[in-house]
Design a protein that fits this description.
This protein has about 375 residues and is mainly α. The protein is built from 14 helices and no strands.
């Protein structure tokens, strides 16, 4: 007992000294961590690419070429290389199709939008004046309707300009970091091709240096984390594609302008839980509002209906209950992780919180069960 107490005291002292040193040299520590992170960024990209591409890789490996492994042992050795090549070829074809068909139309839509902004604003102005007169809101603005409208136009134009500038800067940032993406792509190929051997080596190392109980706990947590993230990514991507397609079809039927541009925005932002549809709908509504206010109102109603259909019918069937996180904690995870990690936090916050929630819930239940058993033993 004395040895155990001394050990705990030494551990507390050590952690205290380390914490003091870190806080005392916080700037130097963060600078060093930033330098290290800059070095490992390509490997982070590679891991992310490999993790996402592992979904189609497993499809090709198990369902497309899996029969070869069962029928002929000689062909079995070609299953993984063929699955790997098929995965990257499929991704390259998808990127090519997007670049060939969708991007030119998106660029054309954005150029047309920027070119016609003054015309749209001018056509929108009479509609606003008529609406103010019809609702008798002149007294509300104290006779300053003209100045208020001018201010709104200036603020709206500034917001749209900042939004477009932000998109351009982000694209340029991606172009500037193309070296990291190329290295990450190379790393992802090595990770996918050798993941089985690397996982086995990692398990051997953990078995050698960790107690058996901790090893099994880590493996269980890793398995659950992989399951939740895997299902969340697959479900979110499928759901976003379905929502984007339905949005394009609906907007085309109602004759709403910029159907392709808005549908792409809605599909991409739909990946973000809860806030995603609203994040995409606000700029989309503003864009349509400048062209046709009536169509903008139809679009808002259509999006509200589409999101109800998605939330109650489509998403439960595609994503299911694999996350297992109550709504309030989903909201908490989004707010906290987005504040810490930005856009990436919006995407990974929910599955990360789901893993922590599941582990903590099991730990609490185990503690309660142990307490109940100890009470029964005393009685």
């Amino acid at each position: 007992m004395e040895k155990l107490k001394l050990k705990n005291i030494l551990i507390v002292i050590t952690y205290t000294v380390i914490l003091f040193m870190v806080l005392n040299h916080f700037t130097a520590v963060t600078s060093t961590l930033g330098t290290w992170f800059g070095i490992i960024v390509p490997f982070v990209y590679g891991f992310g690419i490999a993790y996402v591409l592992n979904i189609p890789f497993q499809f090709f490996k198990d369902r497309v070429f899996g029969a070869w492994d069962e029928k002929d042992g000689k062909l079995g050795k070609w299953v993984k290389p063929l699955a790997l090549v098929s995965t990257y070829i499929s991704v390259l074809i998808a990127i090519f199709l997007i670049a060939w068909f969708i991007i030119p139309q998106l660029v054309s839509s954005v150029n047309l939008l920027v070119k016609n902004i003054p015309l749209y604003l001018a056509s929108l102005e009479p509609f606003v004046y008529n609406l103010v007169d019809y609702l008798n809101l002149g007294n509300l603005f104290g006779g300053q309707t003209s100045n208020t409208w001018t201010n709104l136009l200036q603020q709206g134009a500034a917001m749209l300009s900042n939004l477009l500038q932000g998109v351009i800067n982000y694209v340029l940032g991606l172009t500037g970091g193309i070296y990291n993406w190329l290295i990450g792509l190379t790393v992802s190929i090595y990770l996918l091709s050798g993941k089985d051997s690397m996982l086995n080596q990692l398990k051997k190392v953990m078995r050698a240096f960790l107690p058996t109980r901790k090893f099994h706990n880590i493996m269980e947590v890793s398995s659950r984390t992989n399951y939740i993230f895997n299902h969340f990514i697959k479900g979110s991507l499928k759901d976003s594609i379905v929502v984007g397609i339905l949005c394009f079809i609906g907007m085309s039927i109602f004759g709403i302008p910029y159907a392709l541009l808005v549908s792409v925005i809605q599909g991409i932002t739909n990946i973000i839980p809860i806030f995603g549809p609203f994040i995409g709908a606000i700029p989309s509504t503003f864009i349509i509002l400048m062209v046709d206010p009536v169509k903008a109102l139809i679009f808002v109603i259509f999006i509200l209906v589409l999101q109800q259909i998605d939330g109650n019918i489509i998403q439960p069937r595609i994503v299911g209950n694999s996350i297992g996180l109550p709504g309030i904690w989903v909201l908490f995870a989004i707010v906290v992780f987005s504040g810490l990690f930005g856009i990436i936090g919006l995407i990974i916050g929910v599955p990360t919180a789901a893993v922590v929630y599941a582990i903590f819930r099991e730990y609490v239940n185990k503690r309660l069960k142990d307490k109940e058993n100890s009470k029964e033993g005393i009685e």
